[in-house]
Specification:
2,3-Dihydroxybiphenyl 1,2-Dioxygenase, domain 1; eight-stranded mixed β-sheet; globular; 2 domains; single chain
């Protein structure tokens, strides 16, 4: 089953954004890790890590050809990846991760990056 996982919000101050979303909406940190040198990935939201939230995407790290517009969570990774490809999505970055926690970056027909993440 597919469900919305993260909407991307571009920010130029991760610390300030964390404080704002906590004060303004009561959001907590769902995920906070340096994915690769110089790129800290921070997700916030009202629930837990497996529920919808916001990906606070650092503006200075943004590359329009790689910045996701949307993250979709799936428990049927292979089926949903194939369905998207059959509908016209193109693979932008090959599948990464181990079974149970894989992800793939797809491009919709208009060039928007959509991450399909297995949870």
């Amino acid at each position: 089953m597919l469900r919305i996982g993260r909407a991307v919000v571009r920010v130029d101050d991760l610390g300030g954004a964390l404080a704002f979303y906590e004060r303004a909406f009561g959001f907590g940190v769902l995920f906070d890790r340096e994915l690769f040198p110089g790129f800290r990935s921070v997700h916030v939201g009202p629930g837990s890590a497996g529920e919808p939230g916001l990906w606070l995407f650092p503006v200075e790290s943004a590359r329009p050809d790689q910045e996701p517009a949307l993250v979709l969570f799936t428990d049927s990774f292979d089926t949903d990846t194939e369905r998207a490809r059959n509908a016209g999505a193109r693979v932008h970055a090959e599948t990464a991760g181990e079974p149970g926690s894989r992800s793939v970056n797809l491009l919709d027909p208009w060039g928007n990056v959509i991450v399909l993440a297995e949870v």
